[in-house]
Amino acid sequence: AVAVEIAPSILGADLGRLSDEVAVLEAAGADRLHLDVMDGRFVPNITLGPDVVASLRDRSRMPFEAHLMVEEPDHLLGRFVEAGCQRVVVHAEACRHLHRTLATVAELGAQAGVALNPATPASSIQHVLKLVDLVLVMTVNPGFGGQRHLASIVPKVGQVLDLADRAGQSVQVEVDGGIALDTVGPVVRAGARAVVVGSALYRHPGGVVAAIEEIREAARA
Ligand code: DX5
Ligand code: ZN
């Protein structure tokens, strides 16, 4: 069995009680907090910025990963690292100069991640694999939680891993979108070693603790 990291997305939480909700996720054994940052341009929704992240930082010991669903995010990279994010994930589709943007994240001392929307091929990141620690494969079109998992995109996990293998690089593949008890198994069997979970945590009748435990169990490859 392999260990799969569970990174809850706070998007489905009660954002009016954000720090309490983060504490619940931490107590439930989450491995990392997935912070969905939306700018209203790259995606048709707006969520939180670096100041909110900074205010959560001293209330949690979890590593923070910022998922920047932000058009041209260069000007915000330093803000999220300063706010306490150990990992910053940018979208390949949002960066005019993706190679330079990813190099900048690493220069800032954070782990660099690149996210791929469903329509974006694995081959699009062939020339930046050396710059990333993580590839975030989106199995929903970004912008909202609670959307249907696009199972047809899961093979991209293997395509990314093959590309990395051929390039002699090791990357972690994380899958984001519609992860639940019934979808996490195929995603892990495809090679993902981290999953983002949002709405499935909050709609579980047993609560967040039970949800994380059951998804972790279902994730054992
Ligand atoms: C969507 C976000 C995802 C989303 C996951 O734009 O990037 O992280 O919040 O939520 P679920 O698990 O409900 O699809
Ligand atoms: Zn996300």
Total count of helical runs of at least 4 residues:
8
Overall geometry comes to globular
Bin the strand percentage: 15-25%
Radius of gyration: 16 Å
Per DSSP E runs of 2 or more residues, the count of β-strands stands at 8
Could you explain the architecture of this structure?
With 221 residues, the chain is an alpha/beta fold. It is 32% helix and 19% strand. It is built from eight helices and eight strands, in the order βαβαβαβαββαβαβαα. The protein has helices at residues 18-27, 50-57, 77-82, 98-107, 155-166, 181-189, 199-202, 207-218, and strands spanning 5-8, 33-38, 64-69, 87-91, 111-116, 134-138, 172-176, 194-197. It has an eight-stranded parallel β-sheet with strand order 1-8-7-6-5-4-3-2. The model has no long low-confidence stretch (mean pLDDT 97). The site of zinc ion (ZN) has 6 residues, from strand 2. Its cofactor is Fe(2+); a divalent metal cation; Mn(2+); Co(2+).
